[in-house]
Specification:
Helices cover 72% and strands 2% of the residues. It is mainly alpha-helical and 196 residues long. Helix 1 runs parallel beside helix 5 and helix 2 packs antiparallel against helix 5.
Length: 196
């Protein structure tokens, strides 16, 4: 609970609180809780979109779309970025964490370029957002994933830029959890639009 202090002139100044700052462990716990609440929200979004996909799939106008092989290369790049980030996070000492974050960020950029290439390859085949319901879901699901991935990339770059701070381990753990979640979400979405 926040305490209030009063200035010499009698003004209430909540910003001048004398309450102790939360400990590093309490702050880390709050940050982890916040991340898990965010990931639960994203999971619910993916569940809702998956449910809509499964219901819409039974329509008579559904035409399956074969994804270009680039999607599998993109998946390998994303999995590699997750592995590089985790290796760096576990090594922590020296340049291990910085190298892991930088390498994962680079591979994330390659994945994003690959996603744009995937959308262009689909368009080159005459498969657009409104071609049929399956193509609409492919663009929608991969687009939603791309937005979250870009946000995670920003988090990763900020984490890399602030490695000198005391809470670098906490930030790296949060970043890795977010990134691994998105890697798993990609595999799930790919399985959904490919085999279901």
């Amino acid at each position: 609970m926040m305490t209030m202090t009063t200035t010499a002139t009698g003004t209430i100044a909540p910003w001048a609180s004398t309450a102790p700052d939360p400990t590093a462990a309490q702050r880390a716990m709050r940050l982890h809780f916040g991340l898990w609440m965010f990931l639960a929200t994203v999971t619910m979004l993916l569940a809702a979109l998956s449910s809509a996909y499964l219901v819409r799939r039974s329509g008579t106008d559904w035409r399956p779309v074969a994804l270009p092989s680039l999607v599998w290369w993109n998946t390998l790049v994303l999995a590699a970025s997750s592995a590089v980030l985790e290796l760096g996070r576990r090594r922590r000492a020296g340049l291990g964490l910085a190298t892991g974050l930088a390498g994962a960020s680079l591979l994330a950029g390659v994945f994003i370029v690959g996603q744009v290439g995937l959308w262009r390859a689909l368009a080159a085949q005459g498969i657009y957002l409104l071609t049929n319901p399956h193509s609409s879901f492919i663009y929608l699901l991969t687009g939603v994933h791309a937005v979250h991935l870009l946000a995670a990339l920003v988090v990763m770059l900020v984490t890399l830029a602030t490695l000198g701070r005391r809470d670098a381990d906490t930030r790296a753990a949060l970043c890795a959890t977010f990134w691994h979640f998105l890697t798993g979400a990609w595999v799930y979405l790919l399985a959904l639009v490919t085999w279901v």
